[in-house]
Amino acid sequence: MSTPTLTAPALRFHPLRDSTTMLRRNLKRMLRYPSMTVLLIGMPVIFLLLFVYVFGGTMGAGLGGSPADGRAAYANYLTPGILLMTVMSTVQGTAISIAMDMTEGIITRFRTMHIARVSVLTGHVIGSLIQAMLAVAVVTGVALLVGFDPAADLLGWLATAGFVGTVAFAFIWLAVALGQASGTVETASNAPMPLILLPFLSSGFVPTESLPAGIRWFAEYQPFTPIIETMRALLAGNPPGNDLWIALGWCAVIALGGYLWSKRLFNRESKL
Amino acid sequence: MTSAITVTGLRKAFGDQVVLDNLDLTVARGTVFALLGANGAGKTTTVKILSTLLRPDAGDARVAGHDVTRDADAVRAAIGVTGQFSAVDNLLTGEENLRLMADLHHLGRREARRKAAELLEQFGLTDAGGKAVSTYSGGMRRRLDLAMTLVGSPQVIFLDEPTTGLDPRSRRDMWQIVRDLVAGGVTIFLTTQYLEEADELADRIAVLAGGRLVAEGTADELKRRIPGGHVRLRFTDQRDHDKAVRVLGHTAPDGDALALRVPSDGSVRSLKALIDQLEAQSLEVGELSVHTPDLDDVFLALTDDKVATA
């Protein structure tokens, strides 16, 4: 074969085009493996129903209403936390699917190909972001059915969507790193566990004022509290104030950290 | 530029375990080069370095005219790799896998569809093209794997143990595919632990043991390097055996007390002479078998002591 020496134009990278290709691959994989998505959405829905219908009456009374309208009041209080939990649930899915990918030979194939390397990861990130937004939309729908009654106008909803997207984007990059660092699918499904549990130690389920001193201190300073408070304010049609900036600061740190860690992990040499 | 791959003084160690020790090799364009070795000899490490997956600790490696460490991207644009473990997406169909490769090589939509259909046809996967790869057999999976490697029309193809774990028929299919590729002018770097495979396919064979090349040459050259063939005679009783040792002269003992080995080139003429001689002495032979040296003998002869000293 008289293949001439490669010329410069053939060696250009196409990160956008390659990322789109990888995104298409990941979306197809999600469609082929729907049980994963169903499971990821199912968990927060179960928590939502459990907290509204089992604990809701008592919890609502604790917020200062009668048990009857307490349930509705608690549904309102609870939903932002559940939505964040939904994001974390899909993030766990990201870590699992990254780890699955890494154990399969196809990633090795991608590494030997002349493609923009980051596209392998960005394909996952954008796919997971779409999955997370869909999951949040579904869970929001269920919340509306069980008594969630937000005061937000269209602008408030759009701001919430944008904010949730930002949070999801940041934690997905973290999950991409966790998934790669895990080595096995089992580890990858456990590694993001703290992200699932942290909402419980925030203002997501009960006001932090009701917590004992040590936990209260932790709850007030961990990233999930400002994130939940921002969502709560946006959905209630109130200005989020300082919480928004603190939350965005956390997101920036987590996204950047996750991105740099992921990139380093992906570029390290393959093992023997 | 006549060589597709040039390797000089390649070294790689993982911790204090030396995997490749001063490896030199050259592969001419449009030929099949087989790297032969037992498990752990360093075959896969060599492929990983040449396909830019691993950096060598020392030495130079050029593939398709480009340095594998300094110009890895140019190397990646020129090569295709089919590894030991199938590099296919199990959740996608065969056709989708090929289209994925076509998209990553930036072929247009129509060209991608044409190329995918052509490769499915060429590899006998047209009927299975619409099915998820997770339903494929081992042989189909390996064929799809190679088909995916070919989407980008690589100049140099690395096949790391392409037939390990395949049934005899799939193995033969794979060999035919490799022969067709070489006829098309591609250079193939093959690793295998099957000597038959190297014998069938390769223009040149290198034997790797303990991270070092212990022999290199054509299959015939390698076979010539070890003692010739022999005829194994097994007698029915000890008396005939002892008499044969006296009469036939140059014989060698065998593991079996009643058997012995007579050097022979395996030709009909020499066999007839031997049988005539046995008859003339009325020696009763229970079994007679002809052994010509094959690459297995070469392999075992070359790697045994090297491994022991490594």
TrEMBL record, chain A:
<keyword id="KW-0472">Membrane</keyword>
<keyword id="KW-1003">Cell membrane</keyword>
<protein>
    <recommendedName>
        <fullName>Transport permease protein</fullName>
    </recommendedName>
</protein>
<comment type="similarity">
    <text>Belongs to the ABC-2 integral membrane protein family.</text>
</comment>
<dbReference type="InterPro" id="IPR047817">
    <property type="entry name" value="ABC2_TM_bact-type"/>
</dbReference>
<feature type="transmembrane region" description="Helical">
    <location>
        <begin position="121"/>
        <end position="148"/>
    </location>
</feature>
<feature type="domain" description="ABC transmembrane type-2">
    <location>
        <begin position="35"/>
        <end position="269"/>
    </location>
</feature>
<dbReference type="Pfam" id="PF01061">
    <property type="entry name" value="ABC2_membrane"/>
</dbReference>
<keyword id="KW-0813">Transport</keyword>
<keyword id="KW-0812">Transmembrane</keyword>
<feature type="transmembrane region" description="Helical">
    <location>
        <begin position="33"/>
        <end position="55"/>
    </location>
</feature>
<keyword id="KW-1133">Transmembrane helix</keyword>
<feature type="transmembrane region" description="Helical">
    <location>
        <begin position="191"/>
        <end position="208"/>
    </location>
</feature>
<feature type="transmembrane region" description="Helical">
    <location>
        <begin position="75"/>
        <end position="100"/>
    </location>
</feature>
<feature type="transmembrane region" description="Helical">
    <location>
        <begin position="154"/>
        <end position="179"/>
    </location>
</feature>
<dbReference type="InterPro" id="IPR013525">
    <property type="entry name" value="ABC2_TM"/>
</dbReference>
<feature type="transmembrane region" description="Helical">
    <location>
        <begin position="244"/>
        <end position="262"/>
    </location>
</feature>
<dbReference type="InterPro" id="IPR051784">
    <property type="entry name" value="Nod_factor_ABC_transporter"/>
</dbReference>
<dbReference type="InterPro" id="IPR000412">
    <property type="entry name" value="ABC_2_transport"/>
</dbReference>
<keyword id="KW-0046">Antibiotic resistance</keyword>
UniProtKB/TrEMBL annotation, chain B:
<dbReference type="GO" id="GO:0005524">
    <property type="term" value="F:ATP binding"/>
</dbReference>
<dbReference type="InterPro" id="IPR005894">
    <property type="entry name" value="DrrA"/>
</dbReference>
<protein>
    <submittedName>
        <fullName>ATP-binding cassette domain-containing protein</fullName>
    </submittedName>
</protein>
<dbReference type="InterPro" id="IPR050763">
    <property type="entry name" value="ABC_transporter_ATP-binding"/>
</dbReference>
<keyword id="KW-0547">Nucleotide-binding</keyword>
<dbReference type="Pfam" id="PF00005">
    <property type="entry name" value="ABC_tran"/>
</dbReference>
<keyword id="KW-0046">Antibiotic resistance</keyword>
<keyword id="KW-1003">Cell membrane</keyword>
<dbReference type="InterPro" id="IPR027417">
    <property type="entry name" value="P-loop_NTPase"/>
</dbReference>
<feature type="domain" description="ABC transporter">
    <location>
        <begin position="5"/>
        <end position="235"/>
    </location>
</feature>
<dbReference type="InterPro" id="IPR003593">
    <property type="entry name" value="AAA+_ATPase"/>
</dbReference>
<comment type="similarity">
    <text>Belongs to the ABC transporter superfamily. Drug exporter-1 (DrugE1) (TC 3.A.1.105) family.</text>
</comment>
<keyword id="KW-1278">Translocase</keyword>
<dbReference type="InterPro" id="IPR017871">
    <property type="entry name" value="ABC_transporter-like_CS"/>
</dbReference>
<keyword id="KW-0067">ATP-binding</keyword>
<keyword id="KW-0813">Transport</keyword>
<dbReference type="InterPro" id="IPR003439">
    <property type="entry name" value="ABC_transporter-like_ATP-bd"/>
</dbReference>
<keyword id="KW-0472">Membrane</keyword>
